Amino acid sequence: MARRLLIIDDDADFAVSMSRALALEGVGCRIAPDGATAWAMLESEPVDVVLIDIRLRAEDGTELAARLCARHPGLVMVIMTAYASVDSAIAALKAGAYDYLRKPFFLDELMRALQRCFQLVDLRAAMARAERELALMRQIEATSQLAAGLSHDFRNMLAVVRANLAVIAERLPPGDSLQPYAGDALEAAVTAGDLVTRLMGFARQPSRPPELQDMRLPVRTAAAMLARTLCAGMRIDCDLPDAPLLVAVDAGGIGTAVVNLLINARDATEGRGRVRLTLRHVWRGGDYARLTVEDDGPGFDPGGLERALEPLFTTKSEGTGLGLPMIQQLALLSGGEFRIGNAEGGGARAVLDLPCLPPGTAPGQGPGENM
Ligand SMILES: Nc1ncnc2c1ncn2[C@@H]1O[C@H](COP(=O)(O)OP(=O)(O)OP(=O)(O)O)[C@@H](O)[C@H]1O
Ligand SMILES: [Mg+2]
């Protein structure tokens, strides 16, 4: 990943030669000769680390560092100076600097300091991600409990309503003026039943680890089923690998994920769009099966993208806001990851990564036997 550094130094020659040397190390630098320029740059574009000279011509670098830190809490700063003293080092650290460099320094000294800073940046990003996921899991769990409690009793009552409506509809003489009313009521009760079943699926935690199965099968089956029915007006391109991809994830969960994503694509493209569904093996520190679903609709709107994984968030009048959280839950419970976003050319993109066995593992062969 390219690193971004802001150098605040009024010694232009020094700053430029440093930025050239750092570019060769894969660090992209921006240079600000004074506090005002640095301030504006930080407002317009985030950076990973700030390298700041303590003695700027017109201002005190330590004070500037303190102001920048107050404005951007958590900003990682390294202070450098030609006039090193214990007092100035303490002042710099108090101002919020993470490290302190004494001019002149060698490139490897600077790189060591920067590497420590980048590690800190990565660690904080990983922690923020983990906290976000934890918060989402808690939300999902709370919603699951609510759904579980309500849907159980509700489903029983609904079964009574449906059975009675069916009897009424059956007993009404053909052509009776009440027929359409009974028909509508029955249809609504059936829809409500589907919704409850869905809520129960959301609430149910898998009781035992699912068996290994080829992920291509539920993906292919769900896509083919939707192409015939709910997504009949759309073009669905399905690109599956030739070899099996073995995952230990419930086939029903994968099928439901594909159904949810395709229905979302249908809704986004008013039923006439094009969806590309790709399944591939990827290596990301482990073997994963990656399912990517891309549509050519308008994509997520920015506010919606931030909230789309929250349970019950929906922008549709008939939506329940459970489709994407269900996929998120499946990913988190399976040790995978689910990401949504917009493709560069527009259109929404959803990526579901699930741990899988290394490609080439025979279907009957468990993970332990593959060593
Ligand atoms: N392919 C997409 N393109 C644009 N926006 C999308 C897409 N998929 C989802 N969204 C947005 O994310 C929201 C949440 O999606 P999610 O599938 O969780 O719920 P829903 O589709 O609204 O309802 P349901 O529970 O019936 O699926 C949607 O309401 C929509 O605003
Ligand atoms: Mg949906």
List the helices and strands and how they pair.
Elements: E1 3-8, H1 12-24, E2 27-32, H2 35-44, E3 49-53, H3 61-71, E4 76-81, H4 86-94, E5 99-102, H5 107-171, H6 179-203, E6 213-214, H7 216-228, E7 235-239, E8 246-247, H8 251-268, E9 274-283, E10 287-295, H9 302-307, H10 323-333, E11 337-342, E12 348-355
Parallel strand pairs: 1-2, 1-3, 3-4, 4-5, 7-9
Antiparallel strand pairs: 6-8, 9-10, 10-12, 11-12
Question: What structural keywords apply?
Answer:
371 residues; 10 helices; binds magnesium ion; 19% strand; 3 domains; Heat Shock Protein 90; single chain; binds adenosine-5'-triphosphate; 12 strands; 5-stranded mixed beta sheet; Rossmann fold; 5-stranded parallel beta sheet; Helix Hairpins; alpha/beta
Commentary on this structure:
The protein is α/β, with parallel strands linked by helices. The protein folds into three domains: 3-105, Response regulator (Rossmann fold); 131-203, Orthogonal Bundle (Helix Hairpins); 213-370, Heat Shock Protein 90. Helices cover 49% and strands 19% of the residues. The protein starts with a strand and ends in a 16-residue tail after the last strand. The model has no long low-confidence stretch (mean pLDDT 87). Bound molecules: adenosine-5'-triphosphate and magnesium ion (MG).
Number of domains: 3
Bound molecules: adenosine-5'-triphosphate, magnesium ion
Which whole number gives the mean pLDDT?
Answer: 87
Number of strands: 12
Distance between the termini: 32 Å
Order of adjacent strands in the largest pleated sheet = 2-1-3-4-5
Spell the H/E element sequence. Answer: EHEHEHEHEHHEHEEHEEHHEE
Quote the CATH topology of the largest domain: Heat Shock Protein 90
Percentage of residues in helical conformation: 40-55%
- CATH level-four homologous superfamily name of the largest domain: Histidine kinase-like ATPase, C-terminal domain
User: What overall geometry do the principal axes of the alpha carbons give?
Assistant: elongated
Q: What value does the Rg take, in angstroms?
A: 28 Å
Approximately what portion of the residues adopt beta-strand conformation? 15-25%
